[in-house]
Design goal:
- The protein is an all-alpha fold.
- About 70% of the residues lie in helices and about 0% in strands.
- The longest helix has 27 residues, at about 25-50.
- The protein is elongated and about 60 Å long.
């Protein structure tokens, strides 16, 4: 994201200090796309694992206890 922001916000002459004197847009898009795909694949698995064993009634009971403590 940093490389993409630099390419969008810095003047054209700033490309001279980059590796290979290129903003590497294709690589930047590829890495960001890979992160997005990885997140979309892992999120459902991790979220399901987090709530495994949690029934709606146990969540509601914990919420009620927390609300009683607060006020």
């Amino acid at each position: 994201m940093g490389l993409g922001m630099r390419s969008a916000l810095l003047p054209d002459a700033a490309v001279a200090v980059e590796i290979g004197e290129s903003w590497r847009h294709l690589e930047t898009a590829g890495v960001l796309g890979a992160w997005a795909v990885l997140g979309l694949l892992l999120a459902p698995v991790l979220l399901r694992r987090m709530v495994r064993g949690e029934s709606g009634s146990s969540v509601a009971a914990r919420r009620e206890r927390a609300l009683r403590r607060v006020g």
